[in-house]
Amino acid sequence: MMRIVKPRVLVVDDEPGVRKALQRGLRAEDMDVVTAADGPTGLQLARTGSFDVVLLDIMLPGLSGYRVLERLRAENVTTPVLLVSAKDGEIDQADGLDLGADGYLVKPFSFVVLVAQVRAVLRRAGPDASRGALKLGALEVDRALRQVRWDGHEVPLSPREFGLLEVLVGRAGTVVTKDELLRAVWGEEQAVTRNLVEVYVGYVRRKLDAVGAGSILRTVRGHGYLASDDQLDEVR
């Protein structure tokens, strides 16, 4: 059975101190945190659908938080979004909620309150929140139908192969270790070793190669495996 590892949070804020503090604090709360410093980068990361919640500042260089949220919802990315802003006006909050935000935090905020809001959003989203499609370039992992498509063409995978690719694309742009893949895909099965992870990565890579998607799945020697593409490489 697939094991959910950690809630994955995207923090989009142009203030380095805020990004660092939130990354450190949320990791201490056992969350997997990725940060972005501007609107276009935040949009590119969030549209993969691989995050459980997005903390999105409104005043961002390149593209405002409002516009990032608007584009995500227009693209049917349903990831919960908590808007963060120094503006505390009712109209600002109403605008954000009307665009599809799931909450609104006013700076300066209590970290305890922020964590409580993040956990509340995750609870409201429930277990079905992870059933949305993941997208990485032309690769789509449909978690509800358990299907994988590359440029519209189906890629046949076994249940274990699908589980492995789901974990890697679900953490796109982040290196996933063999031990993490073991826990997520094989759970507590006693006979499973790290070598089996290598074998299944090989199976998945060959099937992706066959449809021209071989560059998506990469080995990071000494660390683990990474799902990424050229666009995600640029924002990383």
Structural summary, described in words:
With 236 residues, the protein is α/β, with parallel strands linked by helices. It has two domains: 8-125, Response regulator (Rossmann fold), CATH 3.40.50.2300; 130-234, Arc Repressor Mutant, subunit A (Orthogonal Bundle). It is 42% helix and 19% strand. The strands form three sheets. Strands 2-1-3-4-5 form a five-stranded parallel beta sheet, sandwiched between helices. Strands 6-7-8-9 form a four-stranded antiparallel beta sheet, covered by helices on one side. A hairpin with a 2-residue loop joins strand 8 (147-150) and strand 9 (153-154). Helix 6 packs across helix 7 (178-186) and helix 6 packs across helix 8. The longest helix has 17 residues, at 194-210. The chain is globular.
List the helices and strands and how they pair.
Blueprint: E1 8-12, H1 16-28, E2 32-36, H2 39-46, E3 53-57, H3 65-74, E4 81-85, H4 90-98, E5 103-106, H5 111-125, E6 134-136, E7 139-142, E8 147-150, E9 153-154, H6 159-170, H7 178-186, H8 194-210, E10 217-220, E11 224-227, H9 230-235
Parallel strand pairs: 1-2, 1-3, 3-4, 4-5
Antiparallel strand pairs: 6-7, 7-8, 8-9, 10-11
